[in-house]
Amino acid sequence: MRKTIISTDGFGSFSGGDYKLEHVEQDTKMNFESLDRWLYLGADALDNSFAKIGMTMGDLASRSYSSTRPGYFLFCAFKFTHNISMQEVKCIEGDVLSRIDGLHRNVDGSTKRMTHYESGLPSECFFPVDFFTFYKDLHDEIYDHHRSSFVISGYENEYGIDDGEFVDCIFNLRHKKHHDEYIKMILRHD
User: Fold this and answer.
1) How many alpha carbons lie under 13 Å from residue 185 in its C-beta half-sphere?
2) What integer pLDDT is reported at residue 7 of this predicted model?
3) Which of 38, 78, 132, 150 is least enclosed, having the fewest CB within 10 Å?
4) How many CB atoms lie within 10 A of CB 178?
């Protein structure tokens, strides 16, 4: 899964010489063009009750497959701001995993977070879950608790009217015809 590089060269400058506005403009441009800091949601095409949360500060393609789960793929990836540190990314990933673990529990109260077989340590994988509820909860946890560390995008409906905002993300290209539907699932109207 790769994000297309989009240039902002044709947009011009709006700052008019205001150094504060120039800084905001430059920061926005760098966030827009950034391609290397992501919190991703993995899925399994063969089992829609599986989900994995992970992070990368590199190429998403390296995270989009698993030799042990042939149906595994990256469903989506949420974009961090361009200037976030590896330490901050790891802290946010840990907090999000903990929050999601608290939300997705079995009827008896036990965790749906899977553990590694040999070490018994918690993994980044959850099973069994309702995948789309999990996806919406993941987005909401990011939006509500870590918004300043992610790029936020607005969404215009088919009439060109602002219809809310969401944590900027990309989706797997094999699901291209559903991208708008997936965004509408997570839109916030705060």
Assistant:
1) 15
2) 45
3) 132
4) 12
DSSP string, 135-177: HHHHHHHHHHHHGGGB-EEEEE-TTS-EEEEEE-EEE-GGGGG
Amino acid at 179: H
What whole-number distance in Å separates Cα of residue 38 and Cα of residue 57?
6
* Domain extents in the chain: 20-186
Q: What is the pTM of this model?
A: 0.83
Q: Which two tokens stand for residue 1?
A: 């899964």
Helix axes 179-186, 131-146, angle to 10 degrees: 50
Q: By the 8 A CB rule, do 132 and 48 touch?
A: no
Residue 45 in tokens: 């095409």
Q: How many CB atoms lie within 10 A of CB 152?
A: 16
pLDDT over threshold 70, residue 6: no
- Token pair, residue 68, equals 């042990």
pLDDT in tens, 17-66: 665 555 455 545 544 555 678 999 999 999 999 999 999 877 666 556 66
Which two tokens mark 17? Answer: 């010489």
Pairing of strands 162-167, 113-115: unpaired
